[in-house]
Design goal:
Strand content: 15-25%
CATH class: Alpha Beta
Order of helices and strands: EEEHEHEHEHEEEHH
CATH architecture: 3-Layer(aba) Sandwich
CATH topology: Glutaredoxin
Shape: globular
Largest sheet: 5 strands, mixed
Number of strands: 9
Strand order of the largest sheet: 5-4-3-8-9
Number of helices: 6
Helix content: 25-40%
Length: 164
């Protein structure tokens, strides 16, 4: 069995509970949500993602979301996460994997890209990158899919996960 992308990474929810990142994505899908509260587009997309998450997981957990913050400090990250996000997980600001994921997936925020070492661009923020548990990308255009297709996007990603 392939190792989970976030194995060994402590994740926290808005209640302060922690789990190992290897425990998320048990359904085979994981959504990495790259965003920041200072970003107007992120603030505009947030309610849509919250509604999508609730609909997608109404009867059983079908999709885990992990917040990868581009907020400028821990206080801003925690305020953003606890006040505006759904019932999902967050990578703590101090965890280096936060920047590793931005580099791996080419997510730029226009603020600290050089310091973080993001050298290529697949997306700016907000970005919702849909991956398998091992980190293999299924869809870089998660934001657009959710905005266009709503909860039907989940069925598309589930089919992609089975086909590949």
């Amino acid at each position: 069995m392939e190792e989970a992308l976030l194995h060994g990474t402590p994740l926290v929810n808005a209640k302060g509970e922690t789990i190992d990142g290897g425990d998320v994505g048990q359904t085979g899908l994981l959504a990495l949500y790259f965003a920041a509260n200072w970003c107007p587009d992120c603030r505009a997309f947030q309610p849509t993602l919250n509604a999508f998450y609730e609909q997608a997981n109404v009867s059983t957990q079908q999709l885990d979301v992990v917040f990868v913050s581009s907020d400028m400090d821990e206080e801003a990250q925690l305020a953003h996460f606890t006040n505006k996000h759904g019932a999902w997980w967050m990578i703590p600001r101090a965890a280096e994997i936060r920047n590793e994921l931005r580099r791996k997936y080419g997510i730029r925020n226009g603020k600290d890209d050089v310091e973080v070492g993001v050298t290529h661009r697949n997306s700016g923020i907000p970005a919702l990158v849909i991956v398998r548990r091992n980190g293999e990308v299924l869809d870089f255009q998660g934001v657009q899919q959710v905005e266009r297709d709503g909860v039907q996007a989940l069925a598309t990603w589930q089919a992609q996960a089975k086909d590949q």
